[in-house]
Input
Amino acid sequence: DINFKAPILLTQALLKSKKINAGASLVYVAAVADRTAPVGSATYAASKAALITAVRSLALEVARQRIRANCVSPGYVRTPMFDQMKATASVDELVKLAPLGMIEPEEVAQSAVYLLSEASRWVTRSNLVVDSGLTIPMR
Output
């Protein structure tokens, strides 16, 4: 509900009530879990994959109004959710999988700022992976 339904239903309601202006940029937070599919995350990974796919379709639907729609897909970010993973996985081993190390929340926010800015005015229907190199071996 939180990862998929909430952002998509909210966007639909805002579009229907004409609350999103022409030229706007929509940015959704997905995750690299759609690619990595870690153990114990089937529902989470599936919900993020569904969000990415829905945003790709949405971007085509709103392009005529010059509205852009993109996702940011972070890897391992130092958050309370990541801290909860310590109970089920060796966090140090997970971080070693990302060659550039642990990502801070502010760094993900900077990626969203880019997608919201005029600097990305020609970027739509994209999924910006901010994963510290985590998915390089998976590509």
Summary: Residues 42-62 form the longest helix (21 residues). The helical segments are 5-16, 33-36, 42-62, 80-84, 91-96, 105-116. Residues 87 and 115 are 34 Å apart (CA to CA).
